[in-house]
Design brief:
The complex is a heterodimer. Chain A is built from 13 helices and no strands. Chain B has three domains: 175 residues, Periplasmic binding protein-like II (D-Maltodextrin-Binding Protein, domain 2), CATH 3.40.190.10; 85 residues, 3-Layer(aba) Sandwich (D-Maltodextrin-Binding Protein, domain 2), CATH 3.40.190.10; 92 residues, D-Maltodextrin-Binding Protein, domain 2, CATH 3.40.190. In chain B, helix 3 runs antiparallel to helix 14, helix 13 packs across helix 14 and helix 18 packs antiparallel against helix 19. About 9% of the residues of chain B have low confidence. The chains are: A mainly alpha, B alpha/beta. Chain A: Pfam families: BPD_transp_1 (PF00528).
């Protein structure tokens, strides 16, 4: 028994030793900055000349900052439309491409390609495709006799265009995750269901969908975090315009922090965003756990 | 055995953490490769000494010049540094490209490793100067007898804060009206417009619609940020002297009514028409826009089209009461407070921006208008029909207001409301009122630069 305890202690010590570097780096570059940012959100820090305690001033200003709340409404709209579409389409494509047939790999690759392009480069091309007079999208609509809108310049369609472009780019990687999830579902479940007379819809509804719940949880959580932090595509496609409908919280945080040097206020904005992400993720967790335990 | 592993792992760990910490504040110095004695300490000191000894023992001062221009601009900056280095033997300037210069400067200014000269977008002065990170040059100016009157007043004003001057203007630019001569000839227009009314008529004549498709826009209304310029032409100013918005009045309304006429009644433009048309597909260069407001920075691009693009330039047309207006911008050179060789940095700035030799060499190479007026007397600028309209425009062009919150007010309050107006979602009165309310609040929130 004594030797078992010794072995255990030895293993524990080596284990701790091996995780120490990672934990230290995590502490230095993630945990400490987070606490620092929280502290800074109560100061008027400007990087260069001052860091005085201002109490709740930043949060009071935030409360009255109508533009900041507008950017929240913008990303909320984005999230509510983007996430379900993202899940349905990537799951759909994964179901279509989850067969062992020649050529299926080619289609998987083609669906994955958009993910490999750089977000900024792809967005630049999309600006062209969506051009009201000379873009491909409106040219195609023109053949159908439809006069397409100025996609990125009109307040009604600007955010929707961003949703389409980001969907195009994020479906590939989520499709891969779903294919992995699908291949982890044991065949005997389907076989026994067939013996019991279940049709294709039943098999999808009662086997595939529940079995994929951990995958859906992962995909939706990552998408929520990404959606609330939307920045680069929106910036390249519309620069926050027209009429502020595509400005996002991250855009404002960057602007206040690095352009106006109001790091204290920017930290307060960032903290509220972090809390919002936490709340959305929590709601998502509850939805995904509502039926039965997933693991 | 176990101890051995523990010790090795611990050592590696300590080294990694130290390297990580060091990397954090030494990052700028590492990427800037030269100078920055204090953080890299002894070793670099010795290499530096050995580098410089052959040229002139111990006396040569090495300066770091930071800028965010790459590509052609980088070559031009390096050529200027070389020319200066050859003109004397005490100071050696080295250009260091910093893609994200302002952010790098923030860390450099607080943690050491500051550059000696900064390529400076002038409008930033009102935000940075009160924070004591830039060195005033008034004493240098007085000592060397440099005449402030030789430079554009407005540009000097933009480089000043709290009664002190922080740098000298390297370039000046202003927007003027570019027009396509071929489209003008086709429409039977002989003289380029000089007033709002003539501009409107010329735009109507050059616009071409094919059913519901706009083929040639007579006049570009893409940039709502030019509101300030139109407001000056209507006889207004965008901010009051005490830092409040000043467009919710008859003058602001005159601008919006003019835009509304052009866009909705005359239909010389369509919202979103130019979005995404960058260089190579530029709407003016490809003849899809007959007239547009832009600056001298587009000359190089447009000249590339040669015979395919026959264009002329005139100063911005005057408003209803004959008021003229254009916005002046451009870059300057400044000395950070953290530099250890401010006197030498001043020598370089003085040579480049304040002598005919430096200013002209730079201007001809980079095709920029220098901020030094005597250099503009040169035939290179005076006799060129493409430069002259800009020089004329600069005589009345104004810088943007020196309020630290101005660009935020414009970008987050004014332009969004103007966009709603252009898309017919808001009346002129509502637009000006909302822009005023939101703009005043942003100006107030971002007023303190200290």
């Amino acid at each position: 028994m004594a030797s078992m305890g010794k072995l255990y202690r030895h293993q524990a010590r080596t284990g701790y030793l091996f995780i120490t570097p990672t934990i230290l780096l995590f502490l230095i570059f993630t945990v400490i900055p987070v606490f620092m940012a929280f502290y800074l959100s109560f100061t008027n820090y400007d990087v260069l000349s001052r860091m005085d305690w201002v109490g709740l001033d930043n949060y009071q200003r935030l409360w009255k900052d109508t533009l900041y709340w507008k950017t929240f409404r913008n990303v909320s709209y984005y999230t509510v439309v983007f996430i379900p579409l993202n899940i349905i389409i990537s799951m759909g494509i994964a179901l279509l491409l989850n067969f062992r047939k020649t050529g299926v790999k080619l289609f998987r690759t083609m669906n994955y390609l958009p993910t490999l392009t750089s977000a900024v480069a792809a967005a630049t091309v999309w600006v062209w495709l969506l051009h009201p007079e000379f873009g491909l999208v409106n040219a195609l609509l023109g053949y159908l006799g439809i006069v397409g809108p100025a996609w990125l310049a009109q307040t009604e369609t600007a955010m929707f265009s961003i949703i389409l472009v980001t969907l195009w780019q994020s479906i590939g990687s989520n499709m891969i995750i779903y294919i992995a999830g699908l291949q982890g579902i044991p065949d005997y479940l389907y076989e026994s269901a067939k013996l019991d007379g279940a049709n294709a819809f039943h098999r999808f509804r009662y086997i595939t969908l529940p079995q994929l719940r951990p995958t859906t949880f992962l995909v939706s959580t990552m998408s929520i975090i990404g959606a609330l932090q939307l920045f680069d595509q929106a910036f390249v496609l519309t620069e926050g315009g027209p009429a502020n409908v595509t400005k996002t919280p991250v855009y404002l945080i960057y602007q206040q922090g690095f352009n106006q040097l109001q790091m204290g206020y920017a930290s307060a904005q960032a903290f509220i965003l972090a809390v919002a992400i936490l709340i959305f993720s929590f709601i998502n967790m509850r939805i995904n756990k509502s039926e039965e335990s997933v693991v | 055995m176990k101890k051995w592993i523990s010790i090795v792992t611990l050592t590696i760990l300590v080294m990694v953490t130290l390297a990580a910490c060091g990397g954090n504040n030494g990052g700028n110095n590492a990427s800037s490769s030269a100078g920055s004695k204090e953080t890299t300490a002894a070793p670099s000191e010795t290499t530096k000494a050995s580098e410089t000894t052959p040229a002139a023992p111990a006396e040569v001062v090495e300066l770091n010049f930071w800028g965010d221009w790459g590509g052609e601009g980088q070559k031009q900056f390096e050529a200027m540094a070389d020319a200066f280095n050859k003109s004397q033997d005490r100071i050696k300037v080295k250009y260091v490209l910093q893609q994200d210069m302002i952010t790098k400067f923030l860390t450099a200014a607080t943690s050491g490793g500051s550059p000696d000269i900064l390529f400076w977008d002038r409008w930033r002065t009102s935000l940075y100067a009160p924070k004591n990170v830039m060195h005033p040059i008034d004493d240098f100016m007085a000592k060397d007898g440099v005449n402030a009157g030789d430079f554009y007043d407005e540009a000097m004003k933009e480089l000043s804060s709290g009664g002190k001057l922080y740098g000298l203007p390297l370039t000046v630019d202003a927007r003027a009206l570019f027009y396509n001569k071929k489209l003008f000839a086709d429409a039977g227009i002989t003289n380029p417009p000089t007033t709002w009314d003539e501009l409107e008529q010329a735009a109507i004549k050059t616009t071409k619609w094919n059913g519901k498709k706009l083929e040639v826009a007579g006049f570009s209304l893409a940039d709502n940020g030019l509101f300030n310029m139109y407001l000056q032409q209507a006889g207004g100013t965008i901010l009051t002297d005490d830092g409040k918005t000043n467009f919710n009045n008859d003058k602001g309304k005159a601008v919006l009514e003019y835009w509304d006429r052009l866009l909705n009644k005359d239909k010389v433009y369509k919202v979103g028409f130019e979005q995404g048309l960058g260089e190579g597909t530029d709407a003016f260069a490809t003849g899809k826009v007959a007239m547009t407001y832009t600056g001298p920075w587009m000359l190089t691009t447009y000249k590339k089209y040669g015979k395919d693009l026959d264009f002329g330039i005139v100063p911005p047309p005057a408003g209803p009461n004959g008021d003229k207006g254009s916005g002046m911008g451009g870059f300057g050179l400044v000395i950070p407070e953290g530099s250890k060789h401010q006197a030498e940095a001043w020598e370089f700035i003085k040579w480049w921006t304040g002598t005919k030799e430096g200013a002209l060499q730079w201007a001809k190479m980079s095709l920029n208008l220098p901020g030094y007026k005597p250099a503009l007397e040169d035939s290179f600028f005076k006799d060129d029909p493409l430069w002259k309209p800009f020089i004329d425009t600069l005589s009345f062009a104004k810088i943007r207001p020196q309020h630290p919150g101005y660009s935020i007010m414009e970008g987050d309050a004014l332009v969004p409301n103007l966009q709603l107006f252009q898309q017919g979602k808001q009346s002129a009165e509502e637009t000006l009122k909302k822009a005023q309310e939101q703009g005043d609040r942003l100006l107030q929130d971002n007023a303190t630069a200290k």
